[in-house]
Amino acid sequence: EALAELLLSIDKQRPGNFEIIIVDNGCLLETQQVIERASVPYKYLPLCDNPGYAMGNNAGVALAAKSSRWVLFLNDDVVLSDEDFIQNMVHLGDAQNNAVAVGCKLLTAAGDEIIEAGSIIWSNGGATGFGRGRRDIEAPDLSYPKPVDYVSGACLMIDKLVFTNRGGFDKNFPNYYEDTDLQMYIQHELGKEVWLQPLAVARHDEHGSFGQKDSVTLMQKASKTFITKWQAIILEHHIHAPFTLTKYEQDVEHLRASDVRARNPTKANILYLDTLIPNKTKGSGYGRAFDNIAMIATLGHRVTVVSQVPATSEWCNAICRSEIVSLGVELVTSSWESLVDSRIGFYDIVIVSRPTTFEATYAKLCDFMTKSTFVLVYDCEALWYRRDEKLFTIEKEGTIHFPSSREFTTSTMDLLVMGQRNVEVSLLSMADEIVPVSEAEAKIISKIYPQSRVTVVGHVMGLDRITKSTFHERSGILFLASFGGDMYYNGDAIWYFITAIYPLVLKESPSPINLTIAGREIPDLLRTYVQKTDFYQFVTFIESPIITDNLFDQARIFIAPHLYGAGIQYKVSEALSVGLPVVMSNETAEGFGLPFANEDISCIGYNTESFKNCIIIVHSNELIWNKLRDTAVNFIRKTHNRDEVMYQWSKIIQNGLNPTSLARKKKHCISKLNLEYPSGPCLEGEKLYKALYKDMSEHIHHFQSMFEHWAKFGRSEGRKYICET
After folding, report:
1. In the chain, pLDDT over 90 holds for what percent of residues?
2. Judging by DSSP bridges, how do beta strands 557-560 and 477-482 pair with one another?
3. Which of 3-12, 23-32, 662-671 has the lowest mean pLDDT?
4. What stretches pass through the bilayer (predicted)?
């Protein structure tokens, strides 16, 4: 029955380029009857003298097609759980350059309990299936791809050339430990890796082939042979069995042992904490966050990703989560505070991304520091207070009134900037290393804290998406951004464009130039305004486009008309990388560090008039358009190079692994940096809170004051309530 169920589960696999070889050890009549009824095509090898697992599989591999790369060994008491099983195994093997063996997540025959999610070899030669006996089979630590000591031979895929060059399984291990022995050879003699693929799940009737009693006897005999052969290497490379420690300490040590990277002294265990799960499609810096995580994982470090705000499927759906996990990264969607409480002593480095995340978590992180030794890296991305400083400077000058700030009084503006600046500057002092996105902001940080260690990590852009359409196959202007339903920043930028620049473009251009405004949660105010204009027919709104390549390929110009900001705009980098010429404001150009009046990379609009002229010239002149396209691609090739950015991350992490980095952190921990927060309501705080957060008009009757809402909910959500001191 077991073999019949296995063959049926193979028959249900998605069509693929694979063959089935059945090795019949023993030639029992019942087995032959099942094989004869099989509906799948197969090669059949009867070995009626039953030479054992090792020799039987060696003989079976000899029948495999010469063109095949992988061989998947399956016990006859295993059942593949879904139709993507083989596809997932092969995909991981192909994706991980150093992997030559892959195993699956094994469950009990009932499918409700873990047998192993990869297995551990301790320094005494003992072995443990990671997660064995647990019923939380979808837990994060059991559900991400990772390099492991070994995987069960009941479900083992291996590079055929590696297998045959070695001579297959060692005949000195006829029925147990032959799989473990082979995987020790892969890691310690070939210098290659064995990976767990948790997306491939199989149910296993453990010991079904021999029965419980005979299995234990055979296993004990093979264990002695294994330890004798590999003892020296096991003592050097594997950690001590933790079974005499407390339950808490055992859990941490099992976690460390379950991922080969986690116990490698040259690699780091890293906790990456952001406001939300880094969904690269959402904008707002999350594309850069995803790239950073991918690069750190590629460098061979073990990474846990967790969000400060509870994860939701609306923000990051199953596809989004799968993309993160497929990097070989653990994704935790439960409470970040519970996570750090359960892993004291585990992480070497904690990376906190964004000022709002750091502000909301610093108190807990400081408490974590008193219990656990780690280095704190603050990926500030940008100095956000500078964005508001520039915005309110423009407002005070009275030349432009942006929708996002027109309800603020001068005193409210000053209060908001002062409060945000104090918070961000204070947070800088808590980090062992600070990571901004631009050289300009790195210089500012170094002036604020000359003793700080600052490393710039910019955007990464490949050149594999360069658009194909020629100048004459395109038309129109594209503005693509993340709005989040708010006019602040991106909303203000396109507001300035459609109110001050676009009417001039339409007036002076020989023919109308269409405008496309695309992005996530476009504010209704923009649509309402455009509908009331006499150019509404030339403007198209595209809400939350899933694919943006077609937008880049159809537009002739990308615009970045921002008059205030901080850091570097990811979408501008993206536009340049796909070969779409950009017309940008002077503010945007300064963020990129472009030299004054550098018209080779982008046409820069220093004011309304010159921005309008840039659009008309670039949109109408094929020679200039092609020149900007070529120089933009070359600029990205030099400044957004993945290898260079990975090198910066490697330096940051090596600094974190350096024991001398710990002294500063201990000082911060003892001092417990205190941010100044109001202890009660104040008039200016009440006004500011109402002005900043429009949703409070719906909840105002539920609270005695805005301060009450902030104290109960707003502070943890990153909202601002500021009183003059």
Report:
1. 57
2. parallel
3. 662-671
4. none
Separation between Cα atoms, residue 333 and residue 314, nearest integer Å: 13
CA distance 16 to 72: 14
What CATH code would you report for 265-297+309-460+661-671?
3.40.50
Tell me if residue 56 falls in helix, strand or coil: helix
CA pair distance 485, 372, nearest whole angstrom:
40
* Residue 429, C-beta contacts closer than 8 angstroms, at least 6 positions apart: 449, 452, 668, 673
- What integer pLDDT is reported at residue 664 of this predicted model? 46
User: In whole angstroms, what is the distance from residue 10 CA to residue 32 CA?
Assistant: 18
pTM metric for this prediction = 0.87
Please determine whether the domains at 2-260 and 265-297+309-460+661-671 fall in the same fold group of CATH: no
Domain 2-260 coded CATH 3.90.550.10 = yes
Q: pLDDT by residue (tens digit) across 114-162?
A: 999 999 999 998 899 999 999 999 999 999 999 999 999 999 999 999 9
Task: Tell which CATH architecture fits domain 471-640.
Answer: 3-Layer(aba) Sandwich (3.40)
In this predicted structure, what is the pLDDT of residue 209? 53
CB count within 10 Å of CB 67 equals: 7
Residue 636 falls in which region: left (phi positive, over 0), alpha (psi -120 to 50) or beta: alpha
Give the pLDDT mean for 100-115: 96
Any idea what the Cα angle at residue 226 is, between residues 56 and 141, rounded to 5°? 90
d(C-alpha 493, C-alpha 508), whole Å: 21
Q: Which tens digits make up the pLDDT trace of 398-441?
A: 778 888 776 667 777 787 788 888 888 888 888 999 999 888 88
Whether the pLDDT of residue 52 is over 90: the answer is: no
Phi, psi of 87 (to 5 degrees): -60, -45
Spell out a b/e string for 680-704, using b for 16 or more CB atoms within 10 Å of the CB, else e.
ebbebbbbbbebbbeebeeeeeeee
User: What's phi and psi for 442, nearest 5 deg?
Assistant: -60, -40
The tokens of 721 are what?
């309530």
Q: Contacts by 66-72 with C-beta closer than 8 Å and gap 24+?
A: 68/18, 68/19, 68/160, 69/159, 69/160, 69/161, 70/157, 70/158, 70/159, 70/160, 71/157, 71/158, 71/159, 71/160, 71/163, 72/18, 72/155, 72/156, 72/157
Residue 268 has phi, psi (to 5 degrees) of: -115, 145
Tokens of 100: 């030559």
Amino acid residing at 46: P
Q: What residues contact 442, with CB distance under 8 A and at least 6 apart?
A: 436, 454, 455, 456
The domain ranges of the chain are 2-260, 265-297+309-460+661-671, 471-640, 677-725
Q: Which of 376, 362, 385, 375 is nearest to 673 (CA)?
A: 362
